[in-house]
Write a structure and sequence with these properties.
Chain lengths: ~325, ~290
């Protein structure tokens, strides 16, 4: 009986949490005063999609993926080239990006995840560099280092998403859908296998699960999320060039994952927000802001490996417990009098 | 034509030795700590800046002492990195923390380089320049020095690993950390020493590539990545393998210019990496995984 009420309570709590989150997301553009701030929020949303995907392979399965920038770039270029050179609708470009993600996930996952070890980290980091090099040198298609200009905005039945606020709501829908899929997948049979792979791969293999194909699946999901985010980014910026898709971007995505805490979907959003917004705040330090940012994150990694948010929650819980204890004690003393 | 091909092969061997040294340097760290040092390209860059920017241009010290001082400072830095990042992060729930630790460190080093020495590339005038002609082929002196120094480094490292106590301990730790700590080897200290040696090899690479690439902030970006490929192609975690893999990549990559546009030269090593992972994941010399 108590258990039932507990799950009811949990459900209620979840509904309340989701409603408040939705309300915050809806109200945010009214609170933020400048277009620039909304643009930063849009970036947060796009990066959240990437991190949600990265969570599967790096967060849940525990395999290092350092080539997310390559996937991001591939998605962006697929839809940008289709839209500018062939006049294909961005929505079909999105499908193209998903196909790209599938190809990358299979093509890169097969050679590197069949083997045990750190091969994925090495191949993905190489892949990312190759994508950037090809984008910079295949001038006839990608425009070389000058990049692609005038990428059209998304439009739906004549309604063009051409301002930052409009795009914000569109991306929010994408992120909501991404979060929904991520939750469903993490709670599915596959999600549970992913988690167990991180904890004890040998035991999983002993239970008759083909761990290589599971890892490849997780990686493919990651690649698809990355490519979708890339496509969104292309139509959001309106202009892409190879210099924005460096290894530093891949590192940033993993930092987001790490700051938010590995394996948690809420943490992913938190991480994407912190890693995108914190450098903007630190810009007051001018030349030193990158240095300060990296140092903060490095120290954070050493002292709060469970993620900043969860470290914070832990501290608050401890404080609440202490307070309650104190209240309890004073209460008892009061009763004794 | 024949002379051009010979020239390509020789410069391929020279740059291949550089990849081999990179392979050796990260394999050492991998063997001792089970971690990949993703800040190694930035360490190479830092070595070049300390040597060229501070020791030679600013303080005007003569070359042998400058080289020695650079080795010393980089060795100490390597040991500090091991103590500050590898040792605390190596036993965490996931190796992501350690990998990210090294990547963040790399970014911090890159930022420091930009702040201390400025973003403008420079070079050391007259340092390892000039050419030697053998038959009809022209070979630059830098390439010859690279080959000689690399062979010396590889041989002396091998001797060090075979005959000294520290070297033997390093091989033990590479094989089995728990067993070697039970045998009284201080694994933590060993990781510090190994990372220090690895940082010194990074400095050697840095000094050798100054005449090839000048001193820039992106000095080691591509050789850092190709060193990883060299290690995998030769046999992951096996030092002689790194040398074979490095030479193979260097020569194939330089000959690829004959068939491919030169801009895609950097893609070759990655394609080789994927081909080897599919066809022969244990590499040239590695044991079957």
């Amino acid at each position: 009986m108590e258990k039932k009420s507990n799950t009811m309570n949990n459900k209620k709590r979840n509904i309340i949490l989701i409603c408040t989150a939705a309300a915050v997301v809806l109200i945010l553009p009214w609170i933020l005063t400048t277009d620039y701030q909304i643009m930063v929020m849009n970036k947060v949303l796009i990066y959240t999609v990437v991190v949600l995907g990265l969570n599967f392979i790096t967060g849940l399965t525990g395999q290092m993926n350092l080539g997310t920038a390559g996937m991001f770039a591939l998605g962006a270029y697929a839809t940008a080239v289709a839209a500018t050179s062939y006049g294909i609708s961005p929505w079909i470009g999105l499908v193209l990006a998903i196909v790209m993600g599938l190809l990358v996930g299979r093509g890169l996952g097969y050679p590197s995840l069949r083997l045990k070890g750190v091969y994925l980290a090495l191949t993905t980091i190489g892949f990312s560099e190759v994508v950037r090099l090809v984008a910079a040198n295949w001038v006839s298609v990608t425009g070389g280092t000058t990049g692609i200009r005038n990428i059209p905005y998304y439009s739906l039945a004549g309604y063009v998403f051409d301002t930052q606020t409009k795009m914000y709501y569109l991306f929010a829908v994408f992120v909501a859908f991404g979060i929904f899929c991520a939750y469903r997948l993490a709670d599915s049979k596959w999600g549970r296998i992913f988690k167990s792979l991180r904890d004890n791969a040998d035991a999983v293999e002993m239970s008759g699960v083909n761990i290589a194909s599971c890892k490849i699946l997780a990686f493919t999901v990651c690649a698809i999320y990355g490519c979708i985010a890339g496509a969104l980014y292309a139509h959001f910026m309106g202009y892409i060039n190879p210099s924005s898709f460096t290894i530093d971007l891949s590192t940033n995505f993993v930092i987001m994952l790490m700051v938010g805490g590995l394996g948690s979907v809420v943490g992913n959003i938190f991480g994407a927000a912190v890693v995108t917004i914190l450098p903007e705040i630190l810009r007051v330090f001018e030349n030193y802001y990158q240095l300060i940012f990296c140092t903060i994150v490095l120290v954070g990694a050493i002292f709060f490996p469970e993620g900043w948010m969860f470290a914070g929650i832990k501290v608050i819980r401890k404080m609440v417990k202490k307070l309650r204890k104190r209240e309890h004690i004073t209460g008892e003393m009061g009763g004794g009098e | 034509m024949a002379a051009t091909i010979i020239q390509y092969i020789i410069s391929g061997i020279a740059i291949g030795f550089i990849y081999a040294l990179v392979g050796i340097e990260y394999t050492l760290v991998w063997n001792s700590s089970g971690l990949l040092n993703f800040s190694h390209d930035r360490l190479i860059t830092l070595g070049a800046y300390i040597f060229a920017g501070t020791m030679i241009i600013k303080l005007n010290i003569n070359y042998p002492i400058a080289i020695f001082l650079t080795f010393l400072s980089m060795g100490i830095l390597g040991a500090l990195i091991a103590q500050g990042i590898f040792n605390p992060l190596r036993n965490m729930r996931s190796n992501i923390f350690a990998v990210m630790g090294t990547m963040l460190l790399g970014r911090i080093i890159a930022e420091l380089i930009r702040l201390i020495w400025g973003p403008v590339p420079f070079t050391l005038p007259g340092f390892m320049t000039g050419t030697v002609s053998i038959g009809s082929a022209q070979i630059s002196k830098a390439n010859i020095i690279i080959m000689i120094v690399s062979i010396l480094v590889a041989v002396s490292l091998q001797l060090f690993m075979t005959f000294t106590k520290i070297g033997k301990a390093m091989r033990c730790v590479a094989q089995n950390k728990r067993a070697s700590s039970l045998m009284g080897i201080n694994v933590t200290q060993n990781i510090c020493i190994t990372t220090g040696i690895s940082a010194i090899i990074c400095t050697i690479i840095a000094i050798l590539v100054i005449p090839l690439f000048n001193v820039t902030t992106t000095l080691a970006a591509s050789i850092g990545l190709k060193g990883f490929s060299a290690g995998v192609i030769g046999g992951f975690g096996y030092l002689p393998g790194a040398i074979v893999g490095g030479l193979f990549i260097g020569v194939v990559e330089n000959l690829s210019v004959l068939f491919l546009p030169a801009v895609y030269k950097d893609v070759v090593s990655f394609v080789l990496l994927i081909v080897f992972l599919v066809v022969r994941p244990s590499g040239f010399l590695g044991k079957r995984a």
